[in-house]
Amino acid sequence: TPQAAEAPVTLHGATVFKLRSHEPNPKVVQRAAQASRALNALAAGKEPVETRTEVHGHAVHVLVGTRLVIQLHEPDARAAGMPDTQTYALQVSTRISDALRAERERSAIANTVFSISLVVFFGLITLFLLRKVADFAMRAQTFLDENPKKVPAVQLRSFEVLSPAALRSMLLVSVSVGRWLGLLGLVYAWLVVSLSMFESTRGYTVHLTSLVLSPISGLIGRIARSLPLFGVALILIAATSVVVRLVSLFFASVARQETRLAWLPPELAPAASFTTNLAVIVSALVFGAPIITGDAVGPLAHAGKLALVFVGVAISPVLACIAVGIGVIFLRRLVVDGRFSYGGEVGRVKHIALTYVHLRSDDGFDVFVPHVLSLLHATRAYTSEPAIRIEIEVDAAVDPRQVIDVLTRETRAAVEVLDIDGTRVRYRLARLDSLDGARTRLWLEVAHALRGADIALISRRDNA
């Protein structure tokens, strides 16, 4: 009896289906090998898994996309126990589709796991390098801090370009900046590598690279085009530095009382020095830069305008106070010695300045209220004096009528009984008084009146 032939069609070692023949046939093995190679090639590709069958004469072709996997004939179907070739081809097509999808899912999971492992591995390497960069920068800073005498000066023949202290400061700044650039560069490299490992995030790599490198390349190009202007800018910077140095030395002598100015106390000299130097720098940028460079719209002029805008924004609250203060002063919304609620504070007006109002509160405190606060709080004028209220407790053995008579006579306050129990009587005193120290004066009068009448005070309480 002739021996039947059988050849498996495999995908990465796993059998997808088998070709059979009732009699020995070497072509069965060859066809199965060709189909296996076709399946392995399709599994490695990225085109969609769309299996279909096509009838060509007495044969049925099983295709994935446009690629032929195997050609089935009627003897193949009979050997597989199928009624016809079309039915057998549909069964083979289904098995191929399932096998390819399963293999691609397995491959995707394996690639994802491998990519995650690489991300973690590169992350560990990045952490190691981050620590090394930080340690190197720390050791460099420590060396510069502990060995300032080992930093030489930068000289051009006999002319000292940079002093040791200036060079040391530049090195410290360079180490600090280099440390952060190194840390950010390592993190950026790890992020780019990690994003490029996954299909869903690979597109972000191009955007991230463009976001980081495009501004840097543009900056380098602009610097190259501005080199002639850079030389002229150095002249402006040098002249401004000389003026700033002279101003600083002058006000430093005022602070040390070596130079005396009638209009400037020594304690205000540092603030005056800072303000004057700021005005010199801004003026140099706004007015000097266009004259020296001959370009009214150059980068230095723009820097001056930007600094002027910053100063304007910084003093905008003062300008707002002045704008409101002009209306307060000339429209006479407030009256000196009148009692008002202004800017959220209550008190008697002592002075009205261009930027603030000086109030004397009911507790005797001086309060300086900026005019701009009046835009946030309603302004109220009080036609009556503020009521000062306090509470005291006296032993119940003392006749309340005697206590009321003494307190009314000595303090000229309204006295009322609030509560009586078995051991004490609670009284409230109220008096209209807007003078400074009104509450303290009322307490002193109460103490004097009770002491004169030989009445003991048990407890006391302020009522604002």
What does this structure look like?
By secondary structure, the protein is α+β, with helices and mostly antiparallel strands. It is built from eleven helices and 16 strands. It has a five-stranded antiparallel β-sheet with strand order 11-10-9-8-12. A four-stranded antiparallel β-sheet has the order 14-15-13-16, covered by helices on one side. The mean pLDDT is 81.
| Helix and strand composition category | alpha+beta
Largest sheet, in brief, is:
5 strands, antiparallel
The ordered string of helix (H) and strand (E) elements is EEHEEEHHEEHHHHHHEEEEEEHEEHE
Distance between the termini: 121 Å
List segments where confidence is low: pLDDT < 50 over at least 5 consecutive residues: none
**Beta-strand content estimate:** 15-25%
- Mean pLDDT across every amino acid position: 81
Number of strands: 16
Strand order of the largest sheet: 11-10-9-8-12
Into which percent range does the helicity of residues fall?
Answer: 55-70%
